[in-house]
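Case study 2.
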Amino acid sequence: MSHIAEIDRNFAALTVEQDGMRTWDVRKAPFSIHGLYRPEEGGVFRRMPQEVADTVNDGVKDFCRLTAGGHIRFKTDSKRFVLKWRAPYFCDFPHMPRTGTAFFDLYANGQHIHTFIPNDPKETADGLLAEAMVTLPFDGMNDIVIYFPLYNAVYDLSLALEEQATVLPADPYAHTLPIVYYGSSITHGGCVSRAGMAYPAILQRRLNTETVNLGFSGSCRAEPAMADYIAALPMRVFVYDYDHNAPDPAFLEATHEPFFKQVRKQRPDLPIVMVSAAEAYLPGGWDVRREIIRRTYENAVASGDKNVYFLDGHTFYDGAGGRDCLVDNTHPNDLGMWCMANAMEPLLKKLL
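Prediction:
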């Protein structure tokens, strides 16, 4: 049987053509990397310092190296983009494509253009060497954003552009203090088709703001060490999306309010948005969990807190098909993430 790419070329990866290209180190100006620590050459990108992650839990210890929320910004009139990177593996899930878990995603002027899909990754002694190309369908100077993979580690990253292309720094964000998101696999990005469709990335584009994604699949447990780390971050708004990874309502009740109070004690004026689980239906105690989060919010308001907010995740998918927003009864697909962003955007826009 023929491979489908032999019949329909739209299913084939783009052939990499490097003639007339110049290679750049995206860790250096005029490029800017956001949402990640920028390592020295050969270093692994991280979402938080390894020495802090090691004190939280085993999931955060490992998953801080997964590059969710990281992105590169710059301007250029190059039409061709060749990205080369090393990864220890390509992450595969049964319910999420590699275009979301393992590959980079390119936007130009706020429009999605293409995902960097490697044609023939090479096995090396320290993992995979991948190379992929994206071509813009239009000319002129363009604002470029390249999102890192959601569930892969990345190192040895370089970008080739047309040799005669102009490359300039991106315009500063309208809001340079970030929105910091802390949450479960949903915040992390599961299970969208590509990195630019995770809800923090959608909101980053819509609100023209810095973002930090601290979503950790299965590992958002509201530990004091994480509260201290988050409280010390420079930020404009904190989105506290802690629900799904609490193993039961009793655990949630024992940890949700103390975590909030620990952050609030160190950041008395910080806007904090509490989010209950985004659910299309509420079996098995999710309504109880929502009320626990609402109670944290109401207690804060009753104590005189004027900068705390509550968003009811049970309403996020209203009007968009409910379960049609989900991949597996839990994780949102692209439509679900779009609905989550729609629900959060008005409040976050106001707070910014």
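The chain has a mean pLDDT of 92.
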